Amino acid sequence: MEPAASTKIRRVPGNETDPARRAASQAPTLNPVAARTSALTKIYGDGDAQVVALDHVDVSFDQARFTAVMGPSGSGKSTLMHCVAGLDSPTSGQVFIGGTEIGGLSDAKLTELRRDRIGFIFQSFNLIPTLTALENIELPMAIAGRKPDPDWLNHVIDIVGLRERLSHKPSQLSGGQAQRVACARALVARPDIIFADEPTGNLDSTSSGEILSFLASSVADLGQTIVMVTHDPSAASYANRALFLADGHIVDDLADPTRERVLERVGQLDHAHNAAGSTQASDGQSA
Ligand code: ADP
Ligand code: MG
Question: What is the residue extent of each domain of the chain?
Answer without folding.
Answer: 33-253
